[in-house]
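W.,

You were right to be curious about this one. When I first looked at the sequence I had no strong expectations either way, so I just let the prediction run and decided to look at it fresh. Below is the sequence, 300 residues in total, followed by the output.
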Amino acid sequence: MHDGYLRSGASNPVRRALTSLGILMLGIGGLAMATVDSPPPETAPQAPRESAPTKRLLVFSKTAGFRHDSIPDGIACVRELLGNRFQIDATEDAGVFNPENLKRYEAIVFVSTTGDILDAKQQQAFEEFIRAGGGFAGIHAAADTEHTWPWFGKLVGAYFKTHPPVQESTVVVEDRTHPSTRMLPERWTRTDEWYVYDHNPRKHVRVLASLDDSTVSGANMGGDHPIAWYQEFDGGRSWYTGGGHTKESFREPLFRQHIEGGILWVAGETDAPPAPVAPKPEETREAPTTRANDGRGTQQ
């Protein structure tokens, strides 16, 4: 009687219970086996998070004289070239030239500054920055700045005197070992506003490139016309290029690389052959005289 009850078929409640229990146990066992035997699911590798640059550049473009409409293009160019390597602060606030603030920067870039733009305390802070090993890069009208501050004139290398109209001319690249010129051809033809300077700086700087005066009208410097140079000066580094008047300059691939290499050098990010060490400021030539209103030393 008891055995027949157990074998009575699907309607038997005990059999149904036992069958359900067996299915449940098989499910649990299969789950356990899957847990033990199956490898953990793979996860996509996480790309390393890029940290913000820790080094900084100060880009300064204050003007007290002629103002170039290419200044925004120059600032944008520096950001595009070096924004992944430096935090870049661009300003026209001369108040940033104080000792504590300038300690944050590797180098200061003057983008077509003009006129007298720093007071005596700000000038002193700048001098201390360079003496502590800081770098300076000057673009174009940086040479038309602070004509009555002799130390700055020696830092840049020479002061702007005059210029002819914008025209296509040929630059002779004299030194192709520097980071700012190693990518340039020996003769580099381009269009810009070509400065004439108050004196030839070759005695105190290493000339990188000079203008072929025979290819330009109205910009003769007696057959020796430096247009880009660098030097070690008063404890720091200085690099200058006369190019950069036009907006188009800052879209030229070679000119952009020229600027990039110069800034990287003054910031200590790349090496170059030793530059001549300029004499200490008090040992250099007599200070330039204050500009007279004769049309020289001011942009037209």
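Here's what jumped out at me. Residues 1-19, 21-39, 283-296 have pLDDT under 50 and may be disordered. And, maybe more interesting for your project: The chain has seven helices and eleven strands.

Coffee later to discuss?

I.
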